[in-house]
Design brief:
Strands 3, 4, 5, 6 and 7 form a five-stranded mixed β-sheet that branches. The chain has a two-stranded antiparallel sheet with strand order 1-2. It has one domain (3-115): Alpha-Beta Plaits (2-Layer Sandwich), CATH 3.30.70. The protein has two helices and seven strands, in the order ββαββββαβ. The longest helix is centred in the last third of the chain and has 20 residues, at 81-100. With 117 residues, the chain is α+β, with helices and mostly antiparallel strands.
């Protein structure tokens, strides 16, 4: 379900894919995050998604204009996972709320891999 907001002359609908794109672009700007991950369910192999496929590693749900986001990420080796997660949550929450005008109720982070550079 997409987010909906009423105005005095009509209604605004924000598709979940748009929210996922903003969340993904925000996430890859966060320190320690290499990118979004795609998990192949058949064989369990995780792969790093290219920038244009970011939204495949993100699931967005909107219920009563409350946004919930699941991130499947790959992080850089040697970085504190808790610090990366806290930064991701606060940055994405701020940007999505500012961009959409909706509240972010929950952000789940699934670390699917680590990349050594």
């Amino acid at each position: 379900m997409a987010g909906r907001m009423g105005t005095n002359i009509g209604e605004i609908t924000i598709d979940n894919e748009v929210i996922a794109k903003v969340a993904g672009l925000t996430a890859i700007e966060c320190y320690g995050i290499v990118g979004m991950a795609s998990l192949n369910v058949t064989n369990g192999i995780v792969r790093l998604l290219k920038r244009e496929s970011l939204t495949k590693g993100i699931k967005v749900e909107v219920l009563d204009n409350i946004v919930s986001i699941d991130f499947h990420i790959i992080i850089e080796y040697g970085i504190n996972i808790r610090a990366v997660a806290d930064n991701l949550i606060s940055t994405v929450k701020y940007k999505i709320e500012k961009f959409t005008g909706m509240d972010v109720g929950k952000i789940n982070i699934f670390v699917e891999g680590v990349r050594v550079d």
